[in-house]
Amino acid sequence: MKKTFIFLILIQVSIFQYGQIIADHTVVDKYDDIPQYYIDEVKKMLVWVPGMSHSLGYQHGVNLLEAYNNIYQATTWSSDPPPAYSSSYLRLGRPWMSSINFWLDDVASYCSVIDGQNASGNPFSVIINGWSYETTWNNAPGGGLDPVFDIHWAGDANGRWGLDAADQALTGNATCMDTYIAAINSYNSYFATNDIPTIAIFSTGPVDDNAGTESGFQRELKSTHIREYVLADQSRILFDYADILVYNNSNVRYQSNWNDGGNIRPHDQIHPDNQLDYNSSWNIVNENDADGDHIGEVGALRLAKAL
């Protein structure tokens, strides 16, 4: 535990010395420049990615990266308790499928799980919310028209939701993107107060489905809100899942157009290349994703390289 805690302190020191940690599409091609020392430190880490099907992309990615380059040893888990401490491979997974409770209304219960894991002597090193379709699911755009963005907000089974508390007047829902931000901050405050060597980092969500629609457009506004919040403080860390998947391996950005009554409004969408798979020679092949994570092996490998 002491070594893990020291490593996390080094991460925080590095943020202030060298700038923020923002893992987006610009870092994907830099993965093989990581010094061996830090690769070895990551192999001591236990990472929890709570979420639903999309969170499996993180797991599929680290397994693919190990097959692609065996310097990056990893094991994935879906058990409770997680794997025991090891210095030989990154341990990344989730003990169960979970949805928005991680950031919406079940923070205390999750802290209890984290407390127990810490008490076992095998604490979580990093927690990343593995977003699903919470920004677009079940509730199509509706409610009042946002006067700033000229859009209607969409949401999930808990209702439509926007960016901040002011949007409740439009959605009728107190939940907003600031609810997620507050939850991540609450976790990190709790960890610091209780000397728990765990860091919760910010993340963005899926960019598949809803192409060329108002729902897809407002989804990007929600990702942008997270990015702007992280950029406002050098101590914050972001894993930009969405941005990583919008670009392909040739660094080409993919967007879709929403025709808003004759006004064409582009928004980021997963690059079609990232929904394809690899063959045994690591050539991209035109196959549909069959891993259940809504992305292809090409996209999952990009996630792992950035991770």
Number of strands: 14
CA-CA gap between termini: 22 Å
Q: What does the main sheet amount to?
A: 7 strands, parallel
Strand order of the largest sheet: 1-10-9-5-2-4-3
Basic shape: globular
Any low-confidence stretches, pLDDT <50, length ≥5?
A: 1-7, 9-17
Overall number of structural domains: 1
Give the tags:
globular, alpha/beta, 9 helices
Describe the overall structure:
With 307 residues, the protein is an alpha/beta fold. The protein has one domain (2-306). 34% of the residues lie in helices and 19% in strands. It has helices at residues 2-18, 36-42, 56-68, 107-119, 168-171, 177-193, 214-231, 241-246, 297-306; strands at residues 21-23, 46-48, 74-77, 90-93, 126-128, 139-146, 151-156, 159-160, 199-203, 237-239, 255-260, 263-268, 277-278, 284-285. The protein has a 7-stranded parallel β-sheet with strand order 1-10-9-5-2-4-3, with helices on both faces. It has a 3-stranded antiparallel β-sheet with strand order 6-7-8. A two-stranded antiparallel ribbon has the order 11-12. Helix 3 crosses helix 9 (297-306). It is globular. It starts with a helix and ends with a helix.
